[in-house]
Predict the 3D structure of the following.
Amino acid sequence: MPFERPRATLVCGPRDCIKRRVVFKSNLVSYISAYPSAALFIPTGSAMSFVRLRLTPFRFARLTQSATRSSWRPTAIGSRHMSQNIDRDSTTGKAAVPFGIEPSRLTVTKTMSPKELPPSKSLLFGRTFSDHMLRIRWTEATGWEAPSIEPFSTINLSPSATVLHYAQSLFEGMKAYRHEDGTVTMFRPDMNMKRMNTSAQRLALPAFDGNALLECIKELISLDRQWIPKEPGHSLYIRPTLIGTNGTLGVAPPSEALLFVITSPVGPYYPHGFKPVPLHGTTEYIRAAPGGTGAYKLAANYAPGVVAQKSAAKQGYAQNLWLHGPEHWLTEVGTMNLFAVIKDKDGITELITPPLDGMILPGVTRDSVLALARNHVSGVKRLGGLPDVIKVSERPINMGEIIQSSKEGRLVELFGTGTAAVVTPVDRIGYNGGDVVIPTGKDGMGPVSKPLWTELVGIQTGAIKSDWNYVVAQ
């Protein structure tokens, strides 16, 4: 139905938004082009309840993407899965504006100069990259363009690109594992996609369909499958990144962006066994503050930590224990989430991690450790080696409690969790001129972290079956 020029608003009923989604999308595109200052009324639950939105380009893109995105279903093509069907205007037969990432539009250009695979024993984290990468451009005018897998290469940016001046950049980190039977899986990538979208919202970068991006990443990993080392403890590190690329100075939401994914074969974080690390309880620097960006995986959160890490290293410590406020609340360990294990005065073991209060990054490994521990407590799956009775807490903990429990012999262990190392044990904390000694076992791990690490690694490598594993290829 064509729009009448005098009309200043568009009312979308349930039938228009759902049954005639393609026509609605095409008409809405035409409407906003003709009336950029228009308003949109959409039902919010009943036919008489509406919400009014000013159609800014950002809201317009988000609205049309969520309201009219085509539902794609994987179709087997050999050992691959590609989606099918692109929304088309029922009146013209032409493709509608593709605001969402469409796996069916993925193109693949293979490298003409494949690199030689390096010996697995020589791998250093983040130094070697596979033959191909995934790129998906976004513009305010057209939304997400067709995804493309192409040879790994440099990115051409204007010197005035917003990512270079205003740090409009975010990323994720996840891994693909090769199982003994040859199956390739990723570990809980849906959580990375959710967190990446949350980070994008915080920077006013474009949102996307996480499932659609995962389909494209699957194709990338399948193409570079030979880059996944076969040796135990090895994996393929995956780095999705989203940056603002429009070449205009001025702090504003970007009008152009680039989402790209690169992969890197990596070896075990501790090739010669676990080595507990000493931490510097830094009071000179802070990692995050309430209302800031600590809960998001933004590039801007990491560079400021380099100076603090160098300062800790000069004092003989491997990383920082980030403290906050005059009470010195524990927040994170380096770039990892933090766990402490303390026995209460009745001898009950408590697994403690700081709550997600807006300063703490919601780590995938953190969430997995909590889930495994709670399943143990509830009896869903008991883990050998964990105490029969254990309390699992997400609560604040400060250095005063750590010191007191250490003096009373109730401090059991302290460790960090993250994608790269999974679990990192801590053997001491430098604080206010002295060291707080943290107990560790003969193998470097503690009595709680070891069984949790064993279960996690067993799931990731396929030795333990779990629905946390996302199958890439078989």
Notes: The two ends are 48 Å apart (CA to CA). The mean pLDDT is 83. The longest helix spans residues 364-378.
